[in-house]
Amino acid sequence: MTAENSTLVSKVLVLDSDDAERDNIKAFCDANGLVPVKAQADNALAVLRSNVDLGAILLSECYSECGGIAAGRAIHRVRPELPIFLRRTATPNLDDFSEADQRVFRAAYTSDTMHLLRDAIGVSLFSRAYPNALVRGITEVTKAAIEGQFKHVSVEHEAPCLVKDRIIFGELFSMIPLESSWCRGYMMLQSEEQQLLSFLSTEAFGPSVEGEEANFREINNLLGETTNMVWGAFKNRFIIDAPDSNRLSQVPIIVNHRHRYISFGSEDPLLCVKYRLHDRRDASRESIVLYQWFAFSLAWSPDKFKENLPSVESLFDSGELEMF
Amino acid sequence: MAQILVVDDSSTVRNEVSEFLKKSGLVVSTAVDGRDGLTKLQGDPQIKLIVSDVNMPNMDGLTMAEKIRSELNNQTVNIVMLTTENSPIMKERGKAAGIKGWIVKPFKGDAVLATFKKLAGA
C-alpha cells in the first residue's frame, strides 16, 4: 500500500476464523480508515511481534475453535496497550464477563451491530485529530530529508497511521523534542541497525569517509542527522510561536533495553509513518524501512496549528548560500 | 595549518563537507562543537573561513561566532552558518555577530565552492 496523501488510517490485526465475517470486516475496514492485517491461529503472536505499528485487534469470540476469549487474554497479557474489540455471536456487550475479562476487551460487537465497533474505534483510535496540512507536510519534509542524507535512494511512504500503543518496540531510535505554542512532544525515527549497515555497505550509499566501512557509530550519526534535518524543516514550516515557558510540563520517558522498547507515557494515539527506501540504481536490492513517530505527549492544541507562509528568506533554496 | 574549519557535532556532516572541500584542493580541519571550534581557531591562525552548524552541544554556533568577535577579538575570520535553522531571528543574531552567510542544509558543495574559496583566500 502506498499513499502519497495525508489521509490517516490505522492498522488492525484481524483474528477471525469465519470467511464470511472476514469479508464483512474487510468492508468495514475499507469504509472506516482501517487497514486489516490477517493472521493465522498459529502465528498471531508472531504477527504481533513483527508489526510495530498496530492500532487495535479485532478478535472473534469463535476464533481458533472458540478459543477467542482465551486468545484475547493471552494477547492482553503480552500487549496490554493494544485495544481488543471482540466480535460476539449473541450479545454485543461484555456484561456476562468477569471483571478481569472486561478489562481484557475494550468493547464488544456482533455482525449485526457493527456501528458499536465503529463508535468504539472512533473513541479509541481516531480520538485525536491531526490537521491534514500537518500530516502532508511531515511526509514531504521527511522524504526530502531522507533523500538528502541517503544517497541514490527513492523514498515512498505508506498512508500515515494512528497507533494506539503506549510502547514502541524496536532497536534503533533517534528522537528530538518538538516545542511550539500548539504542540509539545517528540519526533522519533526508528530502524534496524543491520538493515542500515547492509544498505550502507555499498560505498555509493554512504556519506562515510572513503575507504572506511560503516559501523554502528556511523549509523547513529546518519540517523541522528536525518532526524536533525526533519526537525529543522518541521520547525521552519510549522513552528511559529514558542510555547509558554511558564507551562512546560515534562513526563518521564521509559526505555527498556531488555524488552527493546520506548514509551512516551501517553495514552493518546501516536502518529506513525512508514517510509521505504529503494536503491535507485539497483532495483534488485532489498529496500529498507524507516518508521517515523510523533508523540505530542506534553501538549496538543491543533486549533492553534498554523503553517508558515513562505517568507523572503525562505525563497532561498536549501543548500544555497545567502550572503549578508 | 588549515584554510577552512568545519564545525558540526554530526560526523556525517563533518565528513561530507570536509571531504568535498579537500577534494576541491582546500586544507580543512574540523571541530565537534562551538567550544572545540574556538580552541581550534585559537591554535591555527591560518584559518580564514569557518563553516559552522548552529545547534550543537556544549556551545552553539552563534555563541561561538559571538565569542570569536568578542573574547578572541578576531574580526577578520569569515563565518558561514550551515544549519537546518531558517529563522529570521537567528539570522539577525548571526548578522550582528558579523557572519558572512547562511546556508540551510543540505550541503550542496558545487553551489558554494567558488564563494568558499574566495572567503578562504584560496
Summarize the structure.
The complex is a heterodimer of chains A (324) and B (122). By secondary structure, chain A is an alpha/beta fold. Chain A has helices at residues 19-31, 44-50, 63-66, 68-78, 99-104, 114-124, 132-149, 193-200, 216-238, and strands at residues 10-15, 34-38, 54-60, 84-87, 107-109, 153-157, 161-163, 167-169, 172-179, 183-191, 254-256, 261-263, 270-279, 288-300, 321-323.
What does the model show?
Chain A has helices at residues 19-31, 44-50, 63-66, 68-78, 99-104, 114-124, 132-149, 193-200, 216-238, and strands at 10-15, 34-38, 54-60, 84-87, 107-109, 153-157, 161-163, 167-169, 172-179, 183-191, 254-256, 261-263, 270-279, 288-300, 321-323. In chain A, α7 (132-149) packs antiparallel against α9 (216-238). Chain A folds into two domains: 10-124, Response regulator (Rossmann fold); 132-315, Chemotaxis protein chec (3-Layer(aba) Sandwich), CATH 3.40.1550.10. Mean pLDDT of chain A is 84; it is low at 1-5. The termini of chain A are far apart. Chain A is an alpha/beta fold and 324 residues long. In chain A, the strands form three sheets. In chain A, strands 6, 7, 9, 10, 13 and 14 form a six-stranded antiparallel sheet that branches. In chain A, strands 2-1-3-4-5 form a five-stranded parallel sheet, with helices on both faces. Chain B has a five-stranded parallel sheet with strand order 2-1-3-4-5, sandwiched between helices. With 122 residues, chain B is α/β, with parallel strands linked by helices. Chain B has one domain (4-119): Rossmann fold (3-Layer(aba) Sandwich). The longest helix of chain B has 13 residues, at 11-23. Chain B contains five helices and five strands. The A-B interface holds A 148-149, 207-210, 217-218, 221-222, 224-225, 228-229, 231-233, 235-236, 311, 313-314, 316, 318-324 and B 10-13, 15-16, 19, 55, 80, 83-88, 91, 94-95, 99-108, 111-112, 115.
